[in-house]
Write a structure and sequence with these properties.
Layout: E1 6-10, H1 14-24, E2 29-35, E3 48-55, E4 58-64, E5 76-81, H2 84-95, E6 100-101, E7 106-108, E8 114-119, H3 120-128, H4 130-140, H5 148-156
Parallel strand pairs: 1-4, 5-8
Antiparallel strand pairs: 2-3, 3-4, 6-7, 7-8
Keywords: Methyltransferase, Transferase, Ubiquinone
InterPro entries: 3_dmu_93_MTrfase (IPR009725), Glyas_Bleomycin-R_OHBP_Dase (IPR029068), PhnB-like (IPR028973)
Domain PhnB-like: 3-118
Length: 157
């Protein structure tokens, strides 16, 4: 067990989510699937209770805790991408699997987890600061999925 693990709350479908993440992102895998040793408020003995998984190298557990708590944008995974092809691949996998688009490179999967699909060029521009950062930021603010060519054009002015 890792010293620090992100615990994500699901309503009975942590295993489905973990398997989707493992199929979608590199350096991701599903580990132990732990079943409830007895009945609990939102399940019965034998139901999947906890799923250990890794998303892009980050250790996580999914807890099937029931419908009591919902995810929101205050927590998100930020996935760095190298180009438009990689950006499209992750964005489309999430959105086309029951997810939804949001603004500025954010989307939400069908389980309510928020994702920032962030091309490296955008973060580089923001890190540089000044006029280049402002131009990249301004164009990003008009987007849902990030358009790498538009960010690069804004960077050049």
């Amino acid at each position: 067990m890792n010293k620090n693990t992100i615990c994500l709350w699901y309503n009975k479908d942590a295993e489905d989510a973990a398997r989707f993440y493992a199929q979608t992102f590199p350096d991701s895998a599903v580990g132990a699937v732990i079943r409830a040793p007895g009945d609990y408020p939102d399940g019965v003995e034998g139901d999947v209770l906890v799923v250990e998984f890794t998303v892009a190298g980050v250790a996580c557990v999914g807890l099937n805790g029931g419908p009591h708590f919902k995810h929101n944008e205050s927590f998100s995974f930020q996935i760095s991408t190298e180009d438009q092809e990689e950006t499209d691949r992750y964005w489309n996998a999430i959105v086309e699997n029951g997810g939804e688009e949001s603004d500025c490179g954010w989307c939400r999967d069908r389980w309510g987890i928020s994702w920032q699909i962030t091309p490296r060029t955008l973060m580089e521009a923001l890190g540089i600061g000044g006029a280049e950062a402002k131009r990249a930021f301004d164009v990003m603010m008009t987007m849902k999925k990030i358009d790498v060519a538009a960010i690069d054009a804004a960077r050049r002015g």
